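debug: dumping io for the single-chain case to check the tokenizer round-trip. Nothing else runs in this session.
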Amino acid sequence: MNRQEALEILKSLTKSESLLRHMRTVELVMEAYAVKLGEDPIKWAVSGLLHDADYEAFPDKHPNVIVEKLHGLGEAEIAHAISAHYTQWNVPYHSTLDKALLACDELTGFIVACCQVRPDGITSLEPKSVIKKLKDKGFAAKVDRYEVSKGAELFGVEMTEHIAFIIDTLRKNKEELAI
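debug: decoded output
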């Protein structure tokens, strides 16, 4: 599946600008990690782009609708990664892709939230500020801190380096993302 095909699926299911931006940020981070790790950047980017595609239209069935659609299109690896992007769904992690999507989803959203409360957005954001905000349970309270830490652990990345990687990736795209 290429990005254009993924975008068509995404736009058929999602209208919310904030949700579309979230999926775009995760797409960018996943693509950057794929390049860094020598993995397939298109597959990883599409996984990030589509991971919450059915959330707005089918919140009670998320992620089953997009997973079934991807299986029907022969995209079993992407479908599995999406089905595993939350630990409490108890889906096993078979691949680096599965672990990366889990590690990048919640934390990328959290980093964007950190940018939104800073006068200069992502421009001067540092990992230590993100770590401090993670300890504040009242800030971005819907972000599951367990998912953030478990994702990094399963992906095998040190938290400060992981945060720095995400910040650097998003910073390169700050104009597009308006952060």
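debug: round-trip ok. The chain has a mean pLDDT of 96.
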